[in-house]
Design a protein that fits this description.
This protein is an alpha/beta fold and 347 residues long. 52% of the residues lie in helices and 11% in strands.
Length: 347
């Protein structure tokens, strides 16, 4: 079934998804905030930050949000997390407080000021969208999706909407699963970026596979611990939006969060590392949000704490690693009894 779809955000992921949806035959518009950038992309069909892309001819690029949204039944929210609220403020200004479309959020982050997930930010800005937002998450670098590299992701939300997203996005190279745990799926996508920074720092320090394997395993522990404390299903973190996304983001040369962490590991300050980046590393802002969230919940997340100290307090990655290793030794599954019981209890 052909859908009329608007993608908000012409960064690498938004452009890749617009391309994928147009390939499938959907009627697609792509909104870019900056007029000059929109005009250039519409004309050249090329994106500097994603040189592999030749944007599908069926995608219409515009900087006019009213034009992009006109007549659309589904909106893909793909702007960086820090701009999601402002973007839906523009949507509200353009279409009013009762839009007729549904939304699928593909942005992975947690808002700094409110500690809300992106779906909550969207519903907060336009309350009429409550119950009409889904999320799409999982291991899916834009650089590979546009090359039709086999990819599997997961969508969660109201059942009918999640199944609709599954149908709209699924192709012979982009497989979409549905999942009932909206909270867990959205959290996994946001949290893994923090740990990719940590893994990158290991690369910057010149460390090996042993270190990164240990770090990723403990990262999964922290993700699940925070998730169940917020009401998510622990099993979700062992799926595509948890373990899957953690693996790809921590290990890939395409990962901007891993790259930023590598620069931190080499001794660069956050300001210096960011100045060398051409794309947004969502993990930077998410680290602050999750640190604040853990303090509010009185939840111990040692890796998050140390990455926060590296990014925002000037602590060296070498010192942070040392302090992690020198924490009092304890059983591996300490504080994890709740998770084990949930795994063992039939649902």
């Amino acid at each position: 079934m052909t859908e009329k779809i608007c993608v908000l955000g012409a960064g690498s992921w938004g452009s890749a998804l617009a391309h994928l949806l147009a390939q499938k035959g959907h009627d697609v518009s792509l909104w870019e905030f900056y007029p000059a950038a929109a005009e250039k992309l519409e004309k050249t069909r090329m994106l500097a930050i994603l040189p592999q892309l030749k944007l599908h001819s069926g995608v219409r690029v515009t900087s006019r949000i009213d034009e992009a949204l006109q007549g659309k039944a589904l909106v893909v929210s793909a702007t960086p997390s820090e701009f999601v609220r402002a973007t839906f403020g523009l949507v509200k200004k353009s279409l009013g407080t009762s839009p007729s479309f549904d939304v699928v959020s593909v942005t992975k982050g947690i808002e700094n000021a409110t500690l809300k997930r992106m779906s909550e930010v969207i519903e907060d800005e336009i309350p009429a969208l409550h119950g009409r937002v889904a999320v799409l998450s999982g291991p899916s670098h834009a650089e590979e999706v546009i090359l039709n590299t086999p990819t599997a992701v997961v969508t969660a939300g109201p059942t009918a909407l999640a199944e609709r997203v599954q149908s709209d996005f699924s192709t012979d190279h982009f497989r979409v699963y549905t999942h009932p745990d909206f909270l867990g799926v959205e959290l996994g996508g946001a949290l893994k970026n923090i740990y990719a920074i940590a893994t990158g720092a290991c690369d910057g320090l010149g460390l090996g596979d042993n270190t990164k394997a240990a770090l990723m395993t403990r990262a999964l522990y922290e993700m699940a611990r925070l998730g169940i404390s917020m009401g998510a299903n622990v099993v979700t973190f062992f799926g595509l939006s948890g373990l899957g996304d953690l693996i790809v983001t921590c290990g890939s040369r395409h990962s901007r969060n891993r790259l930023l962490g590598e620069k931190i590991g080499q001794g660069k300050t956050l300001a210096q590392a960011l100045a060398e980046m051409t794309m947004v590393a969502e993990g930077v802002r998410t680290t602050q949000s999750v640190y604040d969230l853990s303090m509010k919940m009185r939840l111990e997340l040692p890796i998050v704490n140390e990455i926060h100290r590296c990014l925002y307090e000037g602590k060296s990655a070498k010192d942070s690693l040392h302090d992690l290793l020198m924490r009092p030794v304890k059983p591996e599954m300490m504080h994890f009894e709740k998770i084990i019981s949930k795994i063992q209890t039939p649902q």
